[in-house]
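Batch 3, record 17
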Amino acid sequence: MEGSLNQAEGVRAAQVRVALPYHLRNLARVDGDVFVEVAVPVTVRAVLDALEARYPMLRGTVRDYETGQRRAFLRFFACSEDWSLASPDAELPEAVAAGKEPLLILGAIAGG
Amino acid sequence: MSSVRVLVGTRKGAFVLTSDGKRKDWTVSGPFFAGWEIYHMKGSEADPNRIYVSQTSGWFGQLIQRSDDGGKTWHQPGMPDEAVPPPGPPTALPNRFAYDTSSETGKPLTTHQWYDGTQHPWEFKRVWHVEPSLADPDTVYAGVEDAALFRSTDGGENWQELSGLRGHGTGPQWSPGAGGMGLHTIALDSTNPKRIYIAISAAGAFRTDDGGATWKPINKGLVSNFMPKPDAEVGHCVHHVAMHRSRPEVLFMQKHWDVMRSDDAGENWREVSGNLPTDFGFVIDVHAHEPETLYVVPIKSDSEHFPIEGKLRVYRSRTGGNEWEPLARGLPEKDCYVNVLRDAMAVDTLDQCGVYFGTTGGQVYASADAGDSWTPIVHDLPAVLSVEVQTLN
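Prediction for the assembled complex:
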């Protein structure tokens, strides 16, 4: 697993790119993808923890406040694979940990 | 010179409509929070620049937004403005509405009746209504679905449930209507800060006299023929409750069917539908200066949520109910099949009382002459969920 040594914390951390859906980019007041520092191993839970710490206005929008569960109409993708139903503690692909590929957070289409 | 600011919540964002005291020429600002459902937004009387907003989404859940400058800019309460938040856990959780649990067992406080008659746990879905304190801009109440009342005393940064409402005993008999089990009405008594009225679909009306610690149902006199026991203590589908500031013990209610009145703080209700062409509807409001002048918008039925014969009409009573007159000047006289939802009517407090309402067709109508004539401020907004007015001096 790649990752740089975070001198302050003394732990290995990765710069992970996260692609947010339109409305969450607006809430976070960012124009494009965001980068968050995530302690390795890089998992969905670790990425979301880091995302919410960096952008507290997103707390509760991706995961339910009380249960911590993924919101029903959001999905997680990485390296063209659906990680939505995987364990949040499963290690994401190395390309994500290396910042080469983003973790995508997508909203389900509304249909109709 | 006085002016008015109309706060409009819609299915796809918030809009702020402003005019001077003549209420002829309007400026439309928005959409704010474009693409989000804005169930309700309301300004503080203690500080008119303070406005609270319920912003919600089926994808992203519930957010609370706040303006401290009269709607020019917005932020989630307590969210740091700086690019990088300070280290450590956040002190503000403005979007967290956590139901209280039993202090004795730690388990859920109660359950409610589900559609099939079984008991069901409370599940938070959204904030239907925000009600700022009359005296303190940092104190605000939120009525939520599944039905409960929350209060913030720090400007919306953190919320605590007033769980005496759910826990007073009748909670297991409450049940959701087709639109969910929402606490949609919060009426504050201007003469007694410890007295609050709330209403829930489909449970009924409730009152606290001790600032929210204890509650009692106030539904005596309500009759709902769809219920096994039509005059039961709870279970009534109350759509909205209104009062005049000067007489907080006099309440007016638009129930699923029936327009009702109470002269004793909800202890007893009597029907005042009188000569209305239909007494189904959602909104009800009271003239700002005439406590016996009421407004409703009759809707054909609970099966057909639009005006009778395609004619949109407000009905006004100057006698506290029973005797009603149609107000049609300026409103569509044909082919109008919109609805007016429960929080989508408001009045201003200018000398000549202004009345406003919004429709599911995206129109917001204004009357600068207490309902005698109407003019659309906007024609084509998304479906209007709520309308509130601030009178600014």
